[in-house]
Write a structure and sequence with these properties.
With 62 residues, the chain is mainly α. The protein has two helices and no strands. The longest helix is centred in the middle third of the chain and has 45 residues.
Length: 62
């Protein structure tokens, strides 16, 4: 391989790595947002009455 082809391959690999890093950072941001939402809603959901009890679930799944 000549030098130009090697440089081209290196640039392509760097672009692929950069794209993968962007995807990982985006995924991390989404997960962080979901955790934050879950923590923010926890007090509200704890105060809400249960729609179904364990007894109701046992009747359905027996």
């Amino acid at each position: 391989m000549n030098l130009e082809a090697e440089v081209r391959d290196i640039k392509e690999n760097v672009l692929q790595i950069s794209h993968k890093l962007d995807e990982l950072l985006n995924e991390r941001d989404v997960i962080a947002g979901m955790k934050l939402s879950e923590q923010a809603l926890a007090p509200f959901l704890d105060e809400e009455p249960d729609l179904y009890t364990i007894k109701d679930a046992k009747v359905v799944y027996q």
